[in-house]
Design brief:
By secondary structure, the chain is an alpha+beta fold. It folds into five domains: 2-42; 61-294, no CATH class; 300-439, Immunoglobulin-like (Sandwich), CATH 2.60.40.150; 448-570, Sandwich (Immunoglobulin-like); 673-825, Sandwich (Immunoglobulin-like), CATH 2.60.40.150. It is built from twelve helices and 36 strands. The strands form eight sheets. Strands 1, 2, 3, 4, 5, 6, 7 and 8 form an eight-stranded antiparallel β-sheet that branches. The termini are far apart. Its main location: membrane. Pfam families: C2, SMP_LBD.
């Protein structure tokens, strides 16, 4: 026995040595060919008298591409290591990479789910292979045709051995229908997939594919037989973060600019499949009709008005240095996006752009507004972005705010948003039409049309002959300027589509729904129909349920099975429910406003001085402040808090929501001197009349948004700045830094208010940071005046963030202190 085992082991050693020798020979030949190729290139350049300058551009491009690739590869390796780590190692990782359950108390650990996924992961490959081949490949092929690239097909699809990781799970048990279960999962996949494809005769591949996002699973309807759940709806609430590495011939595209094309196509296809309003339905029981899972069910419509922007960064270069910009905005919510027109040569564009988004989930979704500088010769430069949570808008009903741009040194964008709910009352249509006619905005909608195309039957054969082959049908559904395309059903004259779509309708009394079925094999039309929406208004509940409608231009028995439902858009104002049982996706509780508090006293008046013409503006501002304070007092006494608009829109007033609402807007709270009860978190002393250092005081609101991982700072106003010389009134502005480093990245600055000792700013600033970073951070607030070129410091205060409970907004007055030595050194 031992001799046989010794013989087999010796044979294995001989084979391994032979393999090692063969691999070393191949490596030697590869290095030899590589060096010979370099020498041949240099020889040919000299032989044909080609200028060495032709080598400069490829060399520079190669070096830049290599450095860019190293940075991306490092990020992929870190993500892959985190995906393979166990729970203990994840907790000991960097603070920025901690899973969701660390920060959010109602998010459960998911290690048991990760172990189950790890066990079933090998079997997932088979399902994913069919999904990629049947759904993703045709869509990618069609999109690549727009770039004159043809012949795309997947050759090999292997997801690898690293499964996705769930960072936390939350199951909703409040304000949820009894017939469904809603579960949110923090999904992170950083696998070692191996996907190869061919494109225009070239071979390439994708490796190290990564995706991270919040995915929602809705289990509905609940049934009384096994498996107890009729089906699933799976979708991302917002566009996930995607990264990947191209290999093979496609590696030539993996550089800034060129890889954006392929990346954009992949993101679009994932969005079209499972980013709201698109959902991936999975039927688990044959007793459940597909329409239950696939019929679109929006909760309302968010109307967005992108008014203007100001103080944008200057990106264009002029003869005298920095010129202006050519800004445009892209507004995104889920898979839907709109683009404004480009305004040339300005940093204060006025777009007056309207758009609307059907909302299928008010919790978890966020509106993203990104500003860019258009450039014909190179990639457009980013001017900043603003994010607004949909949940906050739905609770307020209507929002009008200037939002400070993130990822930008300066800039604000003016957004108006309105939450419209769905009504079955036909009488509401008259009011909706009147509003659109008054505003004279042609892109506005008055109703929502939901359509579900179940199937078609008896379609004509290809070639128009009875003995021809079955067609490959695909339908297009159109209302107004919006058209949706269905999936292609191959080789059938009775296709089952089972697809639903949502249309925004300008006027249901005059608009028409058009359906056209095409044979993609021959590119010929094999059936069409039109349905006047005014007929739907006469139906009970404005619905048409499973109705077979005849097709024109087809056979005599050809028909399509269709369901339609129309709802009128109606503004109902702010949400009247207390919201105590409703939780956002990350567990931030939405609470009602605190009970009425005693009327606060206005801040002490500034030192009296002799009236001079130069002080008229200051006196006018004081009068306005007194008026706003009086109105605020009366509103508080009537338990009806209101909020003032921005200085540019003084007449705009909206109901105030509690300051701990997860929705971020840059409007200020009521101009009162003390915060509501329940928000007293180590407030600074306000006993002195003009501040502890006789330098005045500043009012700030500080809050940390756990959901968005951002510190929000609102600079409201300054009171009682000292006036040493009545003929030299200061022009104050506020500068912010995050300590301890005081870097340019954390520098923020307000506008300058001319000739005023009691300026009002109401400007909002944000810092992106994890919750763990708050323990060692301080906010330095400095007040300066621009009366001289040096901008002398008038006072400052340092707020220790670790001493405040920033999960709830803290609004307080802070006494200004003399300038510190660190500020003098700046």
């Amino acid at each position: 026995m031992d001799s046989k085992s010794d013989d087999s082991s010796s044979e294995r050693q001989i084979v391994s040595r032979q393999i090692g020798t063969g691999s070393s020979m191949l490596h030697l030949l590869y290095n030899f060919s590589k060096q010979a190729g370099k020498i041949a290139v240099v020889y040919l350049l000299g032989y044909f008298n080609i200028s060495p300058a032709w080598l400069l551009a490829p060399v520079v491009l190669s070096v830049l591409r290599e450095e860019w690739g190293k940075e991306k590869q490092l990020k992929r390796n870190i993500a892959k290591a985190a995906a393979l780590s166990n729970e203990k190692e994840v907790i000991l990782a960097r603070v920025d990479d901690l899973p969701a359950w660390v920060f959010f108390p109602d998010v459960e650990r998911a290690e048991w789910v990760n172990r189950i996924i790890n066990q079933v992961w090998p079997n997932v490959n088979h399902y994913t292979k069919d999904l990629i081949k049947d759904v993703i490949e045709p869509a990618v092929r069609e999109n690549l045709l727009q770039y004159k690239l043809s012949g795309f097909s997947f050759q090999k699809m292997r997801l690898g051995t690293i499964p996705p990781r769930i960072g936390g799970i939350k199951v909703y048990d409040k304000n949820v229908s009894r017939n469904e279960i809603i579960m949110d999962m923090d999904l992170f996949y950083a696998g070692d997939c191996d996907i190869s494809f061919s494109l225009s005769g070239m071979s390439g591949g994708i490796k190290d594919f990564q995706i991270h996002g919040m995915i929602r699973i809705v289990m509905k309807p609940l049934i009384r037989t096994i498996p107890l759940v009729g089906g699933l709806q799976i979708y991302f609430l917002n566009n996930p973060t995607i990264d990947f590495n191209l290999v093979g011939v496609a590696d030539l595209l993996d550089m800034p600019g060129l890889s954006d094309m392929l990346r954009k196509i992949i993101v679009e296809q994932i969005s079209a499949m499972m980013v709201l309003p698109n959902k991936l339905p999975i039927v688990l029981s044959e007793t459940v009709p597909h329409k239950v899972l696939k019929f679109p069910e929006p909760q309302g419509v968010l109307r967005v008005h992108v008014v203007e922007a100001k103080q944008l960064m200057k990106k264009d270069i002029s003869m005298l240095g920095k010129g202006k910009s050519d800004p445009y905005a892209i507004i995104t919510l889920g898979a839907d996006n709109f683009k404004t027109q480009t305004i040339d040569n300005t940093v204060e564009p006025k777009w007056d752009f309207w758009c609307e988004f059907p909302i299928h989930s008010v919790t978890g979704q966020a509106l993203d507004c990104r500003l860019f500088d258009h450039d014909d010769s190179k990639k457009d430069s980013k001017l900043g972005s603003a994010t607004v949570e949909v949940l906050g808008v739905t609770r307020k009903g209507e929002v009008d705010s200037w939002v400070t741009l993130e990822e930008a040194k300066t800039g604000l964008v003016h957004l108006r948003m309105k939450w419209l709910q769905l009504s079955e009352n036909l009488n509401d249509l008259k009011e909706a039409l009147h509003e659109t006619q008054t505003l004279r905005v042609t892109s506005m909608s008055t109703a929502v049309l939901m359509v579900f195309i179940d199937s078609a039957k008896d379609l004509p054969k290809s070639g128009g002959k009875s003995g021809g082959s079955p067609p490959d049908p695909q339908f297009s559904a159109t209302v107004g300027k919006k058209t949706y395309l269905s999936n292609i059903q191959y080789r059938t004259d009775c296709p089952v589509f089972e697809q639903g779509f949502t249309f925004l309708v300008s006027n249901p009394e005059t608009d028409t729904f058009h359906l056209k079925i095409t044979d993609t094999k021959t590119a010929t039309e094999i059936g069409k129909m039109s349905y006047n929406l005014s007929l739907l208004l006469d139906k009970p509940n404005l619905e048409l349920d499973d109705q077979p409608l005849s097709l024109k231009g087809s056979g005599p028995d050809s028909s399509v099975m269709i369901s339609m439902k129309i709802r009128i858009l109606k503004y109902l104002g702010p949400s009247k429910d207390d919201g105590g049982d409703e939780l956002s996706i990350y567990g931030e509780e939405i609470k009602t406003a605190p009970p009425p508090i005693p009327a606060p006293q206005p801040p002490p008046a500034a030192p009296q001085i002799t009236k001079q013409p130069s002080l008229m503006k200051q006196e006018s501002v004081k009068k306005e402040d007194n008026i706003s304070i009086k109105s605020g007092l009366s509103n508080i006494q009537s338990a009806d808090l209101t909020i003032e608009g921005t200085p540019e829109h003084k007449s705009f007033e909206k109901p105030l929501e509690p300051v701990n609402d997860p929705m971020y807007v840059s409007q200020a709270p009521p101009k009162v001197e003390s915060a509501p009860s329940g928000l007293h978190h180590r407030y600074p002393s306000t006993a002195s009349s003009v501040g502890g250092g006789d330098l005045g005081k500043i009012q700030l609101t500080l809050r940390y948004s756990v959901q968005r991982q951002r510190l929000v700072v609102i600079v409201h106003k300054i009171a009682n700045l000292p006036l040493k010389d009545p003929s030299n009134i200061p022009d104050p502005y506020v500068k912010l830094y995050l300590l301890p480093e005081r870097s340019k990245e954390t520098k923020r600055k307000t506008e300058t208010v001319k000739d005023n000792c009691n300026p009002t700013y109401d400007e909002t600033f944000e810092y992106v940071m994890s919750q763990g970073e708050l323990t060692n951070r301080q906010l330095e607030v400095t007040i300066l005046t621009q009366k001289t070129w040096k901008s002398p410091v008038m006072g400052m205060v340092t707020v220790n963030l670790s001493e405040l409970d920033l999960t709830k907004a803290t609004t307080a007055w802070y006494d200004l202190q003399p300038e510190s030595s660190k500020e003098k050194d700046q």
